[in-house]
Amino acid sequence: MRPFKDIVKTTPEAIAALLMVESTGDSADKGMKLVKDAASFGLNLRDYLTLAVDTKGGDNKWKGFNGYEAVKVALNLPHANDFEAGITLQAAANTFQTYAGTRAMFPEVIDDMLKFKTLQDNKVENIAAIVGQSRTVSQREMISTYYEDDADDRKTYIVSELGRIPVRSVRTSEASVKFGKRGSGIEMSYEFARDASLDILTPFASRIARELEKSKVAAATGILINGDGTNAAADVQNFSTFGATGGVISSANYKALAKFLMSNANAGYVFDTFVVNFDMYVELMFMAQPIIGAGATSPVDYMIGKGAPAVSTTLPFMNGMVNVVLSSAVPAGKIVAMTKAEALEELVMAGGNIAESERSILNQSITYVKTEETGYKIAIPKARVVLDVAA
User: Fold this and answer.
1) 48, 364, 52: which is closest to 189 by C-alpha?
2) Would 200 be classed as within a structural domain?
3) What is the pTM of this model?
4) What is the domain range of residue 69?
C-alpha cells in the first residue's frame, strides 16, 4: 500500500482532459489507470479525488468544492436537475455514454443522486444504530481483547501513596477480523442507458442501499450474539431471574425489565440500546398500552397531589435511556442489550468497492453496483448481554 504522501496533486481540468477523449478505448484505459492509482493507496475513487485534486489554486474557480465535487462539475456529471441553471441529469447520462472512462465515477454519482432524492434515511435496519464507531482500514486487522483488572485489592480507584494504580489491558490476538463483501447491482442495456435520465434508477438504487444495510446489520448482530472468534458469545440472562412471569414483555413485567437494567448498571455496564427483531419491537411498543377503566392514580400519586413529598427516581441513565433498534437477525424471544459506545466496532476496507468502478468502465452495458467490504469485532465483551425473555 502506497503512503498518502506519494499522491501527486492535480486539477479538475486535468482529470476532465484525461477522461474526455474521443477514442472510447483510450478513454477507458485512462479511466482504468485512474481507478488503479486510487487502489494503490487503498482508497475508493471519491476519497482519492478528494485528496489528489487541488481546488485552491488558480482563479479560485472551484471555491466551495472539494476535489471530488470539482471533478464532477468538470466532467458535467450533475446528481440533480437544476433547470434554471440549465443542468439536467440527462447531461450525466450523455457523458457516461460518450466517454467510457468517466464511468469510473458512475457508482459515486448514483450514490450522490440517491442521497439528494431521498433526503431522509429510509433504512429500517440501520448499522449506525448498532456500532459504537466505524473506522476505515487499509488492511486486515487483528482482533483486540480487553481484560478487566479485578483483583480484590484493586477494585476501587482510591490509590494509596505509592500504591498500584488499577489498570485494564487491551491486547492483540492472533485472529484477524473477518471481512465480507456485501451488495448487489443493476445492469442497464446500452439502449436503455442512452435514452434514460439517471433519476429513473432512484427506486432501484434505494432498494439496493436498504438491502446492503440489512446485510451489514445481520453480520453485526451475529458477532454481538456469538462473538468474533476471540471474544466469546454474549452472556445470557434469564428474564425470570429479575421477577418476570409468563415469559413475555408486558406492563406486568416492566419492573423486571427495570431490575435487569439496574442489575447490569450496578455491575458497571449501563445499557442504552436494545437490538430486537420485528416481533419484539412491537411487544416493547405496546408494553405500556393503557387499560380502559383502570384507576387514574395510585394512592401515592393521590397523596402527592395533596401536598405529600414526591420522591424523584429520574436518574439520568434510567430516564429515557434505552433506544430500541431493529435487526431481523435477532432470534425470537431475545433482546440484545448493550452499551452502544463500548460493544461493537465496524471496520470498512478502504478501496473495497474499487472493483465496481472497474466493472462500470469495462462492461458494454452500464452497470451500477453498490457494495461494501466490512468486518465487525467486539470492543468490550461484557458491554452486551442477551436477555432471554422466555426463560
Assistant:
1) 364
2) no
3) 0.77
4) 1-107
How far is the C-alpha of 47 from the C-alpha of 41, rounded, in Å?
10
Give the chain's domain count. 2
CATH number at residue 243: 3.30.2320.10
Rounded to whole angstroms, how far apart are CA atoms 140 and 352?
12
On whether residue 113 sits in a domain, the answer given is no
Q: In angstroms, what CA-CA distances link 10 with 7, 13, 22, 73?
A: 9, 8, 22, 15
Q: Which of 88, 107, 126 is the last residue of a domain?
A: 107
Chain mean position to CA 57: 35
**Domain's final residue, options 56, 89, 107:** 107
Let me know if residue 272 belongs to a domain: yes
Q: How far is CA 280 from CA 165, 212, 326, 331, in A?
A: 43, 23, 9, 10
Per-residue confidence in pLDDT tens, the chain, 391 aa? 788 889 989 999 999 999 998 888 898 899 888 988 888 887 888 889 999 999 887 667 888 889 999 998 888 887 666 555 555 667 777 788 788 888 888 888 888 877 776 654 556 899 999 999 988 777 777 777 776 655 554 455 666 676 677 677 777 777 788 888 888 877 776 666 666 667 777 788 888 888 889 999 999 999 999 999 888 999 999 999 999 999 999 888 989 998 999 999 998 899 999 999 999 999 988 887 666 555 556 676 777 777 767 766 666 656 667 889 999 999 999 999 999 999 999 988 876 666 666 666 666 666 777 788 899 999 999 999 999 999 8
The answer as to whether 57 is a domain residue is yes
The set of residues, in sequence order, having a beta carbon less than 8 Å from that of 307 and lying 6+ positions away, is none
Are 240 and 384 contained in the same domain?
Answer: yes
Tell me if 376 sits within 8 A of 349, measured CB to CB: no
